[in-house]
Amino acid sequence: MSTSPKRDADGVPAVPHEERADFLGDTFLEARQACREAVAEGALPYVAYFSRGVFTFSTDEFGDADTDRAVLNRLGRQLGHVVGDLDRALQEPRTGPLIRTLLHTDHGAIMCNLVVPRENVVAVTFGAAHPDRPLTDVEEVNEADRAVATLVARLRKRISLPSLNPGGWESAQVVRALNSVGDNGEPRVAEYQELPDEIRNACRASVRPEDLHYIAYYAGGELALEADHLDHTTLEPFFTQVAVDTRRSFYRVFGRQLEAVARRFNRLIAGGPPGGLVRRFVLDVEQGAVYYYRLDVGSYLVGVTIDQSRVRDSDERLSLLSSRFASLLRRSSRSQA
Fold first, then answer.
1. Which domains does the chain have, with CATH numbers?
2. Of 94, 161, 251, 303, whose CB count within 10 A is highest?
3. In a 3-state reduction of DSSP, which class is residue 223?
4. pLDDT at site 271
5. DSSP assignment, residue 43?
6. Rg, the chain, Cα only
7. CA-CA distance, 136 to 129, in Å (whole number)?
8. In angstroms, rounded to a whole number, what is the distance separating the alpha carbons of residues 27 and 23?
């Protein structure tokens, strides 16, 4: 998707529409300007700002489409409540607050990024997922995700706060240039259901101590397999406040809850833009991220990285594994038919 400024039929740069809460007055001037510029640049059709769960202002390119605007403003408020619940649950492994939530649907994505405690930016973009390509390859979603991360970094900079690197976008190109940590050793693998060798081997090969630290595969709504490198020596600095087994147990319990979380997200966005079911969501905390990839009814992948600089790379790695699993499951379904 192009990020050049949108223009009208006469070639004049389009002016984004802005809505403000009645109480706002002339406050949030710099934030409003930053959001207008982000929409005008082309990657974000809609951006809204919420303070303490209350709609503050929004900027969009919808013109006279009041219905979409009203639906999205309401969605942002409701999403804030869900994000708050997830943030409280994610305090247990001591990896910091929830700083970014990405809901990737069949037809686009919704992003909710933390600016400062109790203040969030919510954005929406459109872009169809391709059935034969990894979800992380939808360029419209990637461009919007980067744009929101840049916008939030700008909003934090105006109050002298550093970027939290949401999405790992700032470090993605840097870490790709780094070599592997060397001898990764064998991951810890626990199998709870009888699985084909292809699935077991795919999980074993995908988990790594340098980025994707934990993987769990759920089939029929139950944990089927988990693999991790959480006890690798290079990750020792990440476990000064919590034991490896404690954090592993948390991810196992939390992972079982993610299908219910996905259903909650689906109910939240039902009937509104961008449309479709949630196929992937990312819960990006201050120190890493938790990923969910839907494969089928009751079948999904959970991934974890505890290194914020590797959030994007881990997402791409799990996305490739998800595509491979989807292919394996389709093949298995055809052979049983």
1. 17-167 (3.30.450.30), 184-336 (3.30.450.30)
2. 303
3. strand
4. 82
5. S
6. 20
7. 9
8. 9
Q: What is the pLDDT of residues 42-87, one digit of tens each?
A: 999 999 999 999 999 999 998 776 667 888 999 999 999 999 999 9
Give Cα separations from 158 to 32, 138, 154, 155 (angstroms).
13, 31, 6, 6
Q: Return the residue matching tokens 């700008």.
A: 154
Nearest CA to 94 out of 259, 246, 230 is that of: 246
**CA dihedral (235, 238, 243, 245) positive or negative:** negative
How far is Cα 163 from Cα 259, in angstroms, rounded to an integer?
Answer: 31
Spatial neighbors of 27 by CB under 8 A, at least 6 apart, are none
> Token pair 């709609």 is at which residue?
55
Q: What angle do CA 115, 255, 49 make, to 5 degrees?
A: 20
pTM over 0.90: yes
How many whole angstroms separate alpha carbon 41 and alpha carbon 5? 4
Burial of 4 (0-12, 13-18, 19+ CB in 10 A): exposed
Query: CA–CA separation, 309 vs 286, rounded Å?
Result: 10
Distance CA 47, CA 155 (A): 13
Q: Which of 302, 300, 267, 266 is CA-nearest to residue 282?
A: 302
